[in-house]
Write a structure and sequence with these properties.
The protein is built from 8 helices and 12 strands. By secondary structure, the protein is α+β, with helices and mostly antiparallel strands. Strands 4-3-12-7-8 form a 5-stranded mixed beta sheet. Strands 5, 6, 9, 10 and 11 form a 5-stranded antiparallel beta sheet that branches. A two-stranded antiparallel ribbon has the order 1-2. It starts with a helix and ends in an 8-residue tail after the last helix. It binds the ligand Nc1nc2c(c(=O)[nH]1)N[C@H]1C(S)=C(S)[C@@H](COP(=O)(O)O)O[C@H]1N2 and molybdenum atom.
Amino acid sequence: MANPLKIFFTKNDQLNTDQLILKKTVISFFFFFVFAGAAFFGLKWLRHQPTAAGKTSRPLRTVLNANEKVFDGLVSEKRLAKQYPVSQADKRPRVNGDLGMKSAFDPASWAMNVIKGKADTLKITLDEIKKLPKTEIVFNFKCIEGWSQITHWGGVRFSEFMRAYGLNGEAAKKYLGLSTPDKKYYVGIDMPSAMHPQTLLCYELNGKPLPLNQGYPLRLIIPVKYGVKSLKRIGFMYFDDNRTPDYWADVKGYDYFSGL
Ligand SMILES: Nc1nc2c(c(=O)[nH]1)N[C@H]1C(S)=C(S)[C@@H](COP(=O)(O)O)O[C@H]1N2
Ligand SMILES: [Mo]
């Protein structure tokens, strides 16, 4: 039989079946090695690229940043998360995440610190928050770790709170920042998502006061984002035109917007 190289350059219809099989096998192996090599050296190259924001290599980070830009523009300001009847809400909501909730904490002396300027901080109590109009929502709460649960929450719309306290200059900033009283957990949120009508400063779960491990006295509920952004036990609130720090985005390189 002719050598494989010769077969390779002969037209298919001039080859017998065995020769044709041989030719196709040679071609398959050729492409197999080309692609395997490309994948091997490509990954090797990727591994040796400098990293940015956490442990993500720069080329991958560039792609993630491009995705973020797209989603930043699309943020679900106008889109409403699907709502459900109260009867569909889970009676035993799951507890997940206790960052910033392990320090000594006295709920009785709690007040939310709203930082307006260097020497201008409002201290707002739970009773004052409860005086504002109450909104309830039942929606599918989604955790980035891969579970979701239909849950029923009550509180005041963040936008309503901002209006009631005359925080117009603050609402005009590009980003909201929230942190726990011990500052060990913190999230950054783009202002359009914070001002979304379904975003709540929340003090009730299933019609009862929030349990301590789910954020009592006050937590955020932001249905247009993954659960990571729904910070429990708000201690501080602040505003900036630059991105406010975000625990998961800064430490692990997660997507800053974490939109749905
Ligand atoms: N203070 C604080 N808030 C937090 C977290 C946390 O670790 N600490 N975890 C977040 C994550 S990842 C999720 S999914 C939700 C879970 O809220 P739940 O415990 O009410 O289910 O809280 C978010 N808020
Ligand atoms: Mo989560």
